[in-house]
Structures are given as C-alpha cells and as structure tokens.
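ARCHIVE CARD
Drawer: 12
Card no.: 0347
Subject: one protein chain, sequence and derived structure
Cross-reference: see card 0346
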Amino acid sequence: MEVNEAELNYSKKKYTVEEYREMESTSEVKHEYYQGEIFAMAGATVPHNFVKKNIISALDQKLNDSPCQPHNGDTRIYIKKNGMHMYPDVTVICGEVQTDNNDKFNVLNPTIILEVLSPSTEGYDKGLKFSFYREIPTLREYILVEPESLRIEAFHLNGDGFWGLKVYKDIDDTLELTSISVSLPLKEIYKRTEVTDQLDNKK
C-alpha cells in the first residue's frame, strides 16, 4: 500500500498510541502511526496487488510445513524502540507470533519484511522506513520489489551486524531468502504481470 501525508483532519492533533489503536480498531481505512501522527494508507495499483499476491502464494506453498509463515498487509508491525506502527505488504514470522502485551494485533517479531514499491513511496521505503525497520531485533531481511519493472533489492543482515544488498534484475534470477532457506524465482514473483507480458512480446 501507499502512505499518504497526514490527512488534514489529523494534522492539528497529536494522538497517543492508545488513541491510535482504538481508532484503528474500528476504521475501514488502515493508518500508520509515528510520534503522535497518523498517516492514511492509499489503495494499491493492479500490478502492485498482482506481485504481492504472487509472493504470498509462493511463500505459502514453500513454507507449508515450516515454523515460518507469511502474513499479508493486514498484519500490523509495532516497533517498540521507535513507537512506529506499520503495515508491510508481506511479512514472514518465524516461530510463535509475539505481540505487544499479547494483544493479538501489534506484532513484534518479523523475520522478513517485503515491500512492493510505488512511485510515491519508493524513496521513503528505501530510506526512512528502512531505518525504522532496522530497529526490529528479529528482522533479518528486507526486500523491495518494483512491480512494474524488473528489479528487486534484497537487504540481508550478515553475521557482522551489517546490512548487505543484492540486486536482482533478470527474469531468470532467483530471489534467495537465506534466513528461511527459501528460493523464489522471479518468474513466480512477476507471473501474470506487465513485466512478463513485455518480456514475452520481445521474444
């Protein structure tokens, strides 16, 4: 999903975490939260949704009997260190799902976060949002997928505590999710999208 700037009716007031969570529990529109500000989530494009669906479907199949399981964009991640509440496009959680005070809503322990990019949020996803996510103790991989062009940026936390980057931009490449020992061919990720249609037309 895309993140809009704070809506005008939110901009004049700072909300507490409790107020935000109470409002969010009855809202038909998802919102992210940071330092008292609430940000509405915009709808996603068709290519965005196709790529997200492909990733979740592939992960669900490959992790069928695994302690690690994929979760969709309805799963809210709470980052205790900075107070951020976010809705990643796809999250992989390994082992028991841990939530804030066992509230069943605010997940604390993602292993992998995948974001499908949009033009309006690409800079945010690659910069500030990634800096927020890096403060999650359990996070091991952060994946950014371009839905309308053939490019994936995969960040992996290595044994020295540094984030390395690998870029995938060939349809015959395979995205390696090393923290869960899963490989996702880019052909699966981009299945039934304009990216594969364009490649087919070039043959």
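Annotation on reverse: The chain has one domain: 44-202. Residues 46-62 form the longest helix (17 residues).
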